[in-house]
Amino acid sequence: MQEVAAQNPSKMLPRLQPLPATGGGWKMLLYKEVLRFWRVAFQTIAAPVLTAVLYLLIFGNVLTRQSMPGYEGVTYVAFLVPGLVMMSVLQNAFANSASSLVQSKIMGNLVFIQVTPLTYWHWYVAYVGASIVRGLLVGLGVYAVTLFYAPAHVAAPLWIAVFAFLGAALMGALGLLAGLWADTLDQMAVFQTFIVMPMTFLAGVFYSVHNLPGIWKSLSHFNPFFYMIDGLRYGFFGVSDSSPWLSLAVTTGSFLAVTLLVLYLLKTGYKLRQ
């Protein structure tokens, strides 16, 4: 036996079993992405909640007694809550998928995912799914803290759930798009600074678009972020600056458009097969 083993050492080695092409691989990637931000929850969850609360304290104390035109019985502090919740959801969902992909590129560990039998659909579900989880956790945290400063208004909880989920999914997909395009953290910051932040602040987080001058009021209706925030605000107060069905149509259409683009780029290996 020893002579046979010496002549054929490969017979003494265990056979490597091929990895399954389908199964729970995408679940492990999703778990990895959720665990990535959960391990530093103080930075990824608590810090955004604190930032939103600071916005509420600063703007709310200045205009605490002011009521909002078109929102009967709603104070300015209460008006801020849906906008701050959605702003936190959008920004954190975007940051999660974008930063994860860019950091993997920089550290060079993206190859360990590429050699797995995961399809581009698995990548999409895992990265966007983790972004949804983080965005919703931050949004829930912001809403829970704001209950100490403003009375709870919940007119249509189903609308709240729909727009919060769609908003997080859209921004998770947009973050994945930014992560595919960017090769460095500086490039990702350009995407966030010049696209995400301006569109968020110009979407009616701190004001009603009815208070804007004519041209700016018209331009705001071309901003898809406005419809996400306005739709969520309808869920809280039962009134909004536009129809919730229009907001749902624009948000869903934007989500599908970004998703199709991201899936195409993932399928072709854009900036991944280098």
Layout of secondary structure:
Layout: H1 2-7, H2 25-38, H3 41-62, H4 76-107, H5 111-114, H6 120-146, H7 157-181, H8 185-201, H9 214-220, H10 224-237, H11 244-268
Helix pairs in contact: 2-6, 3-4, 3-6, 4-6, 4-7, 4-8, 4-10, 6-7, 6-11, 7-10, 7-11, 10-11
Task: Briefly characterize the structure.
Helix content is 70%, strand content 0%. The protein has 274 residues and is mainly α. It has eleven helices and no strands.
Provide structural commentary.
- The protein has eleven helices and no strands.
- By secondary structure, it is an all-alpha fold.
- It has helices at residues 2-7, 25-38, 41-62, 76-107, 111-114, 120-146, 157-181, 185-201, 214-220, 224-237, 244-268.
- It has one domain (23-268).
- The longest helix has 32 residues, at 76-107.
Q: Please state the CA-atom Rg, rounded to the nearest Å.
A: 23 Å
Distance between the termini: 47 Å
Question: Could you report the average pLDDT, rounded to the nearest whole number?
Answer: 86
What general form does the structure show? globular
Unreliable residue runs: 1-22
Q: Domain count, please report it.
A: 1
Sheet-strand content, in percent, reads under 5%
Can you write the helix and strand succession as a string? HHHHHHHHHHH
**Total helix count?**
11
Number of strands: 0
Question: In this structure, how is the largest beta sheet organized?
Answer: none
Would you tell me the structural class of the helices and strands?
A: mainly alpha
The helicity comes to: over 70%
